[in-house]
Design brief:
Length: 128
Amino acid sequence: MRIEITSKQITITDSMRSKIEDRFEKLEKLQIPFIKPHCIITKQNKNIKIETTIGVPQGKIFAHAEHTDLYVAIGHLFQKIERQLNKHLHKSEAARAKNNGKDQCRSGEISGETSTTDESDNKISMNG
């Protein structure tokens, strides 16, 4: 995978490049194909800001992080990216995507009937 890394005020060292590439390799375990990942590193006052845009099937992932230490900012950035990728990966499995059980009712997996229980189970006794 080719990762484009650009910087405006900082020269990109080999250790910076390898740290970013290592973090992208860890994200490959999610098995989502990345389309043109691009990182931008800028220096703002005492903080270093890193932004990343990644194209994924059916969308884009964008995240940014700021910190005084570049490597801490990279760690925060990739935590945000991983959360977004997990959400993107499991979006079809989410409860909101399953029509709140309507498909299961239609197929007969569950019924809309109330279950009958013994009324003694429903009594609440208070000692006092």
